[in-house]
Amino acid sequence: MRKDLITDAAIDLVAEQGMRGLTHRAVDRRAGLPEGSTSAYFRTRKALVEGFVARLAEQEQREIVLDPADLAGGIAKTIDGWLVERNRTLARYAAMLEATHHPELRTIMVHSPREQATALAEALGHADPERAGAHFTAFIEGLLFYRLVGGGSTKGPTPGTEESLADLRAAVEKALRP
Amino acid sequence: MRKDLITDAAIDLVAEQGMRGLTHRAVDRRAGLPEGSTSAYFRTRKALVEGFVARLAEQEQREIVLDPADLAGGIAKTIDGWLVERNRTLARYAAMLEATHHPELRTIMVHSPREQATALAEALGHADPERAGAHFTAFIEGLLFYRLVGGGSTKGPTPGTEESLADLRAAVEKALRP
DNA sequence: CCTCCCCTTCTACATCTGTAGAAGACTCTA
DNA sequence: TAGAGTCTTCTACAGATGTAGAAGGGGAGG
Q: What is the pTM of this model?
């Protein structure tokens, strides 16, 4: 599917050069397609942005590992996976920032589902599950951001390694504690 | 100082329209200066970006409230302050994302100082202060991000209110617990 | 008063970008 | 095999953008 080729190239571009690098022609070049291809599939830039955001959302469905036997381990693995998929996660952050001034894009925020977190907090016996769920979500978001673009991106363990997993697991365990 | 006028306008622009909105002429218009002014002060776009990032860094020195008598309260107040200063914080996130592919910009990451967090964790008697400090930093980052652009931006309490402060304080208190 | 220097404003121009439509190639069905 | 409809590629063009240099103005020091 040519459309997926295009949106995938767009995701890489955004990750590597930011929203500013996302132009019809740049996508053409990145995807190795003849000039004009991107413009044909996404006539306006708005459409192009929505296209790549939709692709992101599509790929991030059901990525969250929730293993009842090893809750912290599963969540840690999920986060580590996002760290490994660096480009996709970076593109997601760019899109979230963009969604700040273009509310149509809120789609991507589907991920990091708060209801799920709230239910989890409830199951774990937190006093105020609503709030605990929000805080837990915030913590996960923060861990991810910190390790991907924040201070932890230079100093922290390399994603995908055992060390990274162990580090994340410890953090998640703490966050899960009532 | 004309230069500050320009960089401040640039910060607002980036917050409101993203990096893509940051052009010499747009800054001129935003700052109410005649066309060409920004270009005169920052000949290249790279210089313009570095200019506004430097301005951000300059303003964020010593903003972190560390009250020994009320640790959580002080930190919560700090975070709430960042939420209130929405534009500056949004611009900072945009810059951090940009720093991903332009390492010269790492300056801004001065904020959220890890050593400080590590020392704090040590003082609080965590087993592994290094790691606890990193996790604490991550949590703060996450809280901020979540409330500013993530899920919490639509549902959470309004920054600057007592409710917001109380919410943040509860979160911070939990994060501080050994 | 003149002169020099810096700050500011204006103008120019090559290049990039968004967007549209025409032209051509391919595919599937009848 | 012919035709219709779609997918793909090419070309055009107006407007925005980055960047440079020329022109203008005002103040400080002599």
A: 0.92
Mutate: best of A131, A141, A169, partner B, most B CBs <10 A: A141
8 Å CB contact between B76 and B168: yes
How wide is the angle at C-alpha A164 spanned by C-alphas A162 and A170, nearest 5°?
100
Angstrom distances, CA of residue B24 to CA of A14, A26, B32, B45, B109: 22, 22, 12, 8, 25
Separation of alpha carbons B47 and B124, rounded Å:
43
| Helices and strands of chain A, counted as H and E runs | 10, 0
Listed in sequence order, the residues at least 6 apart from B75 whose beta carbon sits closer than 8 Å to its beta carbon are B64, B65, B66, B140, B168, B172
Model confidence over A153-168: pLDDT tens digits? 888 899 999 999 999 9
Q: What is the pLDDT of residue A96?
A: 94
pLDDT digits (tens, 9 = 90+) for A127-148: 888 888 888 888 888 889 989 9
Using alpha carbons only, give the angle A136, A138, A144 rounded to the nearest 5 degrees: 105
Asked if the C-beta of B34 comes within 8 angstroms of chain A's C-beta atoms, the answer is no
CA-based nearest residue in chain B for residue A151? B109
